[in-house]
Structure formats: structure tokens, C-alpha cells
Fold D-2-hydroxyglutarate dehydrogenase.
Amino acid sequence: MSPEILSALGAIVGEERVLTDAESAARYGADWTRVHSPAPAAVVLPGSVEEVQELVRLAARQGLAVVPSGGRTGLSGGAVACRGELVLALDRMNAIDDFNPVERTVRCGAGVVTEQLQQFAEERELFYPVDFASAGSSQIGGNISTNAGGIKVIRHGMTRDWVAGLKLVTGTGELLDLNRGLVKNNAGYDLRQLVIGAEGTLGVVVEATMRLARPPKDPAVLVLGVPDMASIMDVLAAYQGRMDLQAFEFFSELALQKVVEHQGLQRPFDTPAAYYALLEFEQVSDADMEQAMALFEHCVEQGWVLDGVISQSVAQALSLWRLREDISETISRWTPYKNDISTTVSKVPAFLAEVESVVNGAYPDFEIVWFGHIGDGNVHLNVLKPDALPMAEFQQRCGEVSRWVFEIVQRYGGSVSAEHGVGLLKKDYLLYSRSALEVDLMRQIKRAFDPEGIMNPGKIFD
């Protein structure tokens, strides 16, 4: 990047907020993936919407590619800058204000950390329900750009369900104020929903009005050992038929072994099982616990459940949640090859059986860890890299089998990316989930928002 452009960037945000050193490039130019090496030309840290607009206008004039950067916790390479791009890190835009107790809404800068919003809501006896393992570092702008999901989707939906309005700086530097917090607004296209999940390819999300909810009352957690995947779905049907579940997660025996060994946790019970289901529900009255225990006994009688444990305190509930929530952090030391796939909930057992058959046949010498949000049809396949295997060879072997897995996804009408986005890692597989016509329409939409093609180019599609 020329000294003239660096000087122009410094004139907008201040010279001390234009970073070109190797440490900053590595920090701001990468996400949680390790496939591509970060190589941004520079990193800038704007502090206002107006500064973002000026930066994008400069980039458009100079033909500079721009990568918006949030908490960089993504798992698809969507925030990776590996081709000399200009990174816009939104960390400084982290104000929370304009709280409206009547509407139950609050205005957040794009750099607000998810946990920060959760704590803000809790202090006002409210609740922000979009929750996941990276809540302590992910940012609202990134959550919106990837339509983040997490562990409460079965009850509360995805990020898009909680965005009352947002502001977007387009690829020409124009500012769009979309929906403005309205509950009802059928005046033409809802451009807000196009932006949500667009991975920064349409512009930079700079601000959002987020909805809040009432907090769950006295949540209880139940962990069940089940003999097979079909039994998990039977348990889900039994509980959903009688109770409003807050969450319904699953993980495999190997996932449990890894977490117990490396996080210093205890097994929930002594009986081993092929899979484990984790349920959370509210205890609005004593009848809720009675109903949960009656359903547990019914599932045991049917042979769907081998053993189980239910939380007796908030501390125990948090401990049980760690069995599921600590999996990603635990297995990160093996640099797992991840596939984040989904289908409709009813098809999951047959879908998973086919995927397992292909994966186990192709990777007989690899450890396979399964977990996910099975209550909404989303499962995470994690292939752990053997220590002695070079990364390039590991990625190549996994990539070959991914196509077989995605052929199964396509046959089941599923998605090759349920919640992590497409980014760099999944764009070669987009046509397994989207038609050619859909992708062409996406390209046309991008050109309307970003005529110079500077916003996060190479992500989702080329």
C-alpha cells in the first residue's frame, strides 16, 4: 500500500489507528480457521459511522478490497484477509445506548461483544437469547453478517430474528438505515434481511437495533445417554410434544471423552452411551419438573434412554452445559476439519447414518467427533488431525471426502453451511445447496450494493 494511501487513511482515523505491522496483520487478518495465511495490506480501526463511510469511499476510489472484521471467531474464512486487502476492524464501535424498555430494544455499535449485550440485558432483567461458545469474543456486527445461531435456536431462532433494524455502509460509502426498529413494515423489500448473513459482501454493518426478551425462569438442564441417533429423535419428539424446550443439543461419546479428559470435568453418569442429548427447559412451576421426570421414565421404558442426570442447582446446570459448550475449545488443539451441515429435523437419523458411513469408511485412521444443535437439524462433523500428519495432506484428504458428504447433503435437501457461513472454505460447494439461478441472483444483488466489487471479495462466490 502506497504512502499516499496510508496517509489518507491516517487522515480519516488518525495515524495511530492505521496498523501495518506483522503482529496486527496476523491478529486482524485471520479468523478461527487456519487454512489461509493472513496478509492484509493494512488494518484501520474506525470509531464512527462517518469514518467507515470515508474509508469505504477512499477504498472505492482506489480500487482497494475491504474486509470487515468483528470478533474474528468465524469458522469459514469469511473474515480472512489473505490478498492484500484493507481490514476494517470495528472494535472501537462498541457503544450500547438508546435502550427502550417499552419496545425492549437497544442500539448497539457493530463492535459490541455478544456477552456485553447479554450482560446489558441481564442488568435490566431482560435476556438476549442468541448464545454460543464464542459469545465472549464475537461481535454483533459479525453475528449479523453470519446470521449466528447457537444453542437456543430451537426456542429463540437465529440472529436475524432479533435484529429490529440495522445501518449498513454500502460499497459506495452510502449509509442505509434499514427497518428502523419497526415490528410491522411491509413497504417493499426488507433489505435488512438481505444484509443479515451476507458475510460483509454487501457492505459494512455499523450499527444495529437489537430486540431483547424476558429471561427464562429457573432453567433446568437434563443430560441423557442414548444408544443411537434414532433414539435421540424419539426423545426430542417426546419432550417437544409436552414441553417448550429452551435447547436440545447432542454430542458423541468421543466428544465427551475429550472434554472430560482435557477440561477437568466429570462424566454426567457412569453408564457409557453412543450419544448424549442435553435438554434445557424452564421450571415455571413444580409441574414442569414432574413432567420432565415422567417423560424421562417413559423414554427409559421405551429403550430410548440408558441413563440420565438433571441439574439440582444453577451451578450444576452450568457444569452440565460445559460438557457440550467446551467441545469446540477442547478439540481445537487437533486443528479439526469442520463440516457444519444440516437438513430438516425429521431426516436427521437417516442423513447422519449415511454421512457416518462415508466418513468412517474414508477416515478409518482419524478420530471423528460429532456434536450439534440437533433440535434444529444442524450437526457438526469434526475430523481431528493426527499430530504426525502434515496440514496440507490432512486438508487434501478431508476435502476429497467433503464432496461425498455434500452429495448426501444435496440429496437430503440440506445445507453445506448451517450456521458458520460460506466464506472462503465453502464457496466451492455452494451449488450443493443453492441453484445456479440463485447464485446468479446473489451476484446481481451484490453488484447493486457494491458496484466496484470491493466488499469482502472472494467470499461466498468469486
Summary: The radius of gyration is 23 Å. DSSP finds 15 helices and 16 strands in the chain. The chain has a mean pLDDT of 95.
